[in-house]
What we know:
Number of strands: 4
Amino acid sequence: MVEQEVKKVEAVTPVAPAPVETKTDVAEGKVTAPPPPVAAEKEKAATTAEESKALAIVEKTELVPKKVSGGSIDRDIALADLEKEKRLSFIKAWEDSEKTKAENKSQKKLLAAWENSKKAALEAKLRNIEEKLEKQKAEYA
């Protein structure tokens, strides 16, 4: 598994770079190094103050030790486990599919029943209105 931790980056005092061998005096065995640039040190000092406030994400990964193969038996067991997981995932997918089909079917039936009840209610209101109009028509005549 991969775990993530947030750690605060602490300010680090700038360390002078390791001396680089540029010229060697064979007779004396001395090593001379060029002087470090002053501008680079000033930039490092400015950026370390900003970096001290920054957050960094550090990922920890757990290494799963690989089993030393004992032969074909371990491989066969691993393959059997894999087949079992595959079969179980197919079964779960099939069950989910069937459940979804059943839910869709019941939703269609409920929707049809709701539509029919609304139609019946509207038709009843329409008949009442028509009867009232027929009565008014008869009175006027």
